[in-house]
């Protein structure tokens, strides 16, 4: 079972890789791997005991960031394969709007 610290570390690695992609594009296969890593991370987060989290707000921030990297990786991979990105873009926009409407801490 993944710990909150392990989840944070994996999340930071995915975020760093996606940021690097925005500067220097990485191959589509790597983007697909990052998307799968984000999906695996989300599953591990949902199955974790949440031990190690200090507040509910911290858990909400982690949840938000996991959803953000999952959707971002999906968008980047779809773009690399010349596929439609309308649906993941809409979902990402909905995520951001939920936060701006007071639904989170970001």
Polypeptide structure, described:
- This protein is mainly alpha-helical and 106 residues long.
- The chain has one domain (4-103).
- Helix content is 78%, strand content 0%.
- The chain has four helices and no strands.
- Helix 1 runs parallel beside helix 3 (56-80), helix 2 runs antiparallel to helix 3 and helix 3 packs antiparallel against helix 4.
- It is globular.
- The mean pLDDT is 93.
Structural descriptors:
106 residues; mainly alpha; 4 helices; globular
Q: What distance lies between the first and last C-alpha atoms, to the nearest angstrom?
A: 27 Å
Mean pLDDT: 93
User: Which spans of ≥5 residues are poorly predicted at pLDDT below 50?
Assistant: none
Main beta-sheet annotation: none
Number of strands: 0
Total domain modules = 1
The fraction of residues assigned to DSSP E strands is under 5%
Calculate Rg over CA atoms.
14 Å
Order of secondary-structure elements? HHHH
């Amino acid at each position: 079972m993944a710990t909150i610290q392990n989840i944070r570390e994996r999340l930071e690695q995915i975020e760093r890789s996606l940021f690097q992609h925005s500067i220097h594009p990485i191959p589509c296969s790597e983007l697909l791997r990052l998307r799968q890593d984000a999906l695996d991370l989300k599953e591990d987060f949902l199955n974790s005991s949440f031990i190690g989290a200090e507040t509910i707000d911290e858990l909400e921030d982690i949840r938000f960031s996991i959803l953000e990297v999952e959707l971002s990786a999906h968008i980047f991979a779809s773009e690399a394969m010349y596929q439609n990105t309308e649906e993941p873009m809409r979902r990402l926009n909905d995520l951001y709007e939920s936060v701006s409407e007071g639904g989170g801490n970001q």
